[in-house]
Amino acid sequence: MKIVMTRVDERLIHGQIINAWYTRNNISHILIVDEELVEDQFMTNVYKALTPLSIQVEVFGVDGIIDFLKANSDIDGRVLLLSRMLSPIVRLVEKGIRPDCVLMADKKYFPNKIPISKEDKQCVNRLAEMGISAIAQEYPDDEPLLIKPFR
Fold first, then answer.
1. What are phi and psi of 78, to 5 degrees?
2. Smallest Cα–Cα separation from 123: which of 150, 98, 96?
3. Helix axes 118-129, 86-94, angle to 10 degrees
4. Residue 111 has what pLDDT?
5. Residues 6+ positions from 88 with CB-CB distance below 8 Å
6. End-to-end CA distance of the chain
7. CA nearest 33: which of 93, 112, 111?
8. Strands 56-60 and 2-8, sheet pairing
9. In this predicted structure, what is the pLDDT of residue 4?
10. pLDDT at 10
11. Helix (H) or strand (E) holding 58
C-alpha cells in the first residue's frame, strides 16, 4: 500500500473528500487515525457508509495505522491517510510514516484567518523539522499554500 495523500480535515469524510480528492487520487483505502473514533463504532459505521463500496475505510489509533500498513505492505492500494487533528499525523511521522506533505483543509491554516492553537503551531514546526511540508489547500484546484514554521 502506498500513502498517496495525507489530509487533516475536522470533518473527516464528506462530499468534498469523495467527489474531489478521491477521484483525483484514485484512492482504494481511507485510513482514519483517530484515537476517540476507534471507540465509537456508530460514527465509524457512519463514515464507512458515506464512501463508495469500492473504498475500504478503516479507523485506527496511531499504532493501529502502523500495524495495518505493515501487515498490508504487499497489497496494491492507494491510501488517503485522514485525521481530524494534526497531532496524530505528527506522531505517525515520528514513528516512521513519511508522507510527501500534509494537506490542511481547515481554514484556520489559511492567511488572515482565526489564530491557530499553540499545539498546532508546534505540530507544524515539528513537521518542518522532520522535512515534511504542511500545505493549506481546501480543494484540489486551489493553489496550495505552504504553511511556514512559526516563531
1. -115, 120
2. 150
3. 30
4. 58
5. 33, 34, 35, 61, 62
6. 36
7. 93
8. unpaired
9. 92
10. 87
11. strand 56-60
Residue 4's beta-bridge partner residues? none
pLDDT of residue 17: 66
77: how many CB neighbours lie within 10 A of its CB? 16
Contact yes or no for 145/124 (Cβ under 8 A)? no
CA distance 75 to 31: 14
By residue count, the chain amounts to 151
How many other β-carbons are positioned within 10 Å of the β-carbon of residue 147?
22
- The three cell numbers locating residue 17: 473528500
Give the distance from CA 102 to its chain's centroid: 7
β-bridge pairing 29-33 and 133-136 = unpaired
Q: For residue 99, which of 54, 139, 141, 65 has the smallest C-alpha distance?
A: 65
Strands 133-136 and 145-146, sheet pairing: antiparallel
pLDDT confidence of residue 61: 97
The SS3 of residue 7 is strand
C-alpha–C-alpha distance, residues 93 and 30, integer Å: 18
Residue type, 141: D
Low-confidence stretches of the chain (pLDDT beneath 70)? 16-17, 106-114
Dig out the grid coordinates for 105 from the structure.
483543509
pTM: 0.90
